[in-house]
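[Meeting: bench + compute handoff]

Bench side (C.D.) handed over the final construct sequence. Compute side (W.E.) agreed to return the predicted structure before the next meeting so the bench team could plan truncations. Sequence as handed over:
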Amino acid sequence: MSSWRDQILKEFTPKVARLTLVADPDGLLLEEGILEGIRERGFELIPFEDRIAFRYAYESKFRSRWDRGEHTDLVVVLRSQASDLSGLPYDLLQAGRKLSFNLGEIFPNLSCPVVSALDRGDLDALYQASIRHAPGQLSDNATKEFVLRHVFEIAPELIKQPSDLLRVLLRRHYRGQRIPAILDERFIQLLRQTNIFDEWPLETLVADREAFFAFLQERWPIFLDREAAKGASGRPAEASEQAGLSAVPGTAQAVVREEEKPYGLSIKGPVELPFDHHDIRVYIDNLFVEGVLHPVPHEYAETLSKTWVGIGVRAAPTEDRSRRLAKLIDSLEASIPAKDAKHTDWLHFARGWAELKVMSNEDWGLSERQNDRIDALTRRVDQRFLSWIQRRYAGLIQLPPNPPAMVHHIPLFLANSLPGPHHSSLRSPTKLALLVIDGLALDQWLVIREALAAKQPGLRFREQAVFAWIPSLTSVSRQATFAGKAPIFFPNSIQTTDKEPALWAQFWADQGLAPNEVVYLKGLGDGGLESVSEALSHTKARVVGLVVDKVDRIMHGMEMGTAGMHNQVRQWAKQPYLNTLLDLLLDRGFLVYLTSDHGNIEAEGCGRPSEGAVADLRGERVRIYPDAALRAKVKERFPAAMEWGTVGLPEDYLALLAPARQTFVQEKQRIVSHGGVSVEELIVPLVHIEMRGVGK
């Protein structure tokens, strides 16, 4: 078989049985490619997790259709440690065909505990390697080393000098690879067998992406000083002086005039790094281009800016921006995810895309050629993203919540960080705060992050991203964020957000928390924080959900497009409110996560539908209909609009999505809006915010 998926998908033949029950202890059916393959064969899938939620979906979406004589192929997946189906209801067991899959059958020669720790998306590389190399029965450690080498391209025995280690860590953290802790531990153990890396804080740098890039950022100015000195070496004295460098008398080495600089390294480890090694330079360039590392001022910036390090040196602002923008466009053009990409590829791409949105809307003036390149790139990205969404989005809903792929996964992701129900035995129990900034796009988060960091340099941001719901409306996506479940499970409140407090409380009640341990507040963003302070002062408050709607309010009054959004969001973020709110939460001992329910785009009107149907008037990028015939009639006038299915939505919640970068408002009118399908609307930030030094 060419893929491990073939072994599973061959069991799914349409119309063999209308109900198929699958014991799936290793979560194999919840992998993106498997989900796509099952759906392509005409099957629909429901995980059996919450009995009540499952029964609702089963009875309303499938049982009722079977009773009407319709045929649907339904797959019910039971994820439990047991490989049998005894946990399913009796009526399903009587009616369904039964299957079972596990990792041991697919990888019989590898250690199951090691393989089960892998992200299911990594099984492709492992399967191909196991066929190609045909290893015999491997022990735990041998399996770990096999996986490190063939899945993550890490060969510990070949790491013999700092540039080797730096290359491996750069590749891992730049790609955002998620490597299980048991593999990191083995990797570090093997590195420690020599004394080459004794001064490196491996436990921090290997696993902690933010700490690793902070480690690089701190050492970049040191490297620039060395480059400045090296650049003057061997020049005539007059040339060196003109370049701002002076040679040490009696030596061939040139040094920066300052004797010593107080670099103030906060992360231990070697002071000098081989940034100029050819394997390292290729990453360094991209890190500065994409904003992961930040250029620094230097007294010899004019000279350094003419060398390869110039991308990391602040020189003439307009020239810096123009050069970085050109390289960023080049990078994005070459890295648009493929049609069969994993969702994590789009999350990674969205980070660079957000940087482009920020840079291209700064007030420094783009050339006509730059505008043309960005417009052409935008069209390509929109087309590729829409194609991918149509193919893969339905599978995202079913993915496991660790790490979260969609906003409704966030509560369960947070719940998994709690030590256990009631926590009565813990002297200092974990407290969680989820801060939802309504309508915050990823590019606007970058603007806020810059303002927060300027006011409080001690803040550390551990950044992820997740997908919002389609349609990207507050009543759909924000409500799902607080409910911790798909919108199909709150059909009666899908047109409003009034039920959010009850849904938030119910989710945490299901996790074992009492009502007085759960807090929900909305309408935040301006004024004082007395209500928040009072809510947090209750000694039993354990989980806090806060809605900041300031950005959403800015958006719905915005007439100056994306640039105007950035400007007003920046001005708001510079005010004390958000910093004070974060201080309040961190000082009270909360783990703080910030996210958004959807983003937004600047779009142009394509005409306003003249129907009298139910529509979310604040979401001009989408119209909602209770009737398919009415939606189809409106689509006749807007043939480029897209009818969106009801995946994860109530059956009578039928969306018509506006065409790319367009809205259902007066023709040619430009507004900032949301509700449709674009990278900016659907990929939103999920950020763990902490003070440096906390948790390390």
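W.E. noted at the follow-up: The first helix runs from residue 4 to 9. C.D. will use this when planning the next construct.
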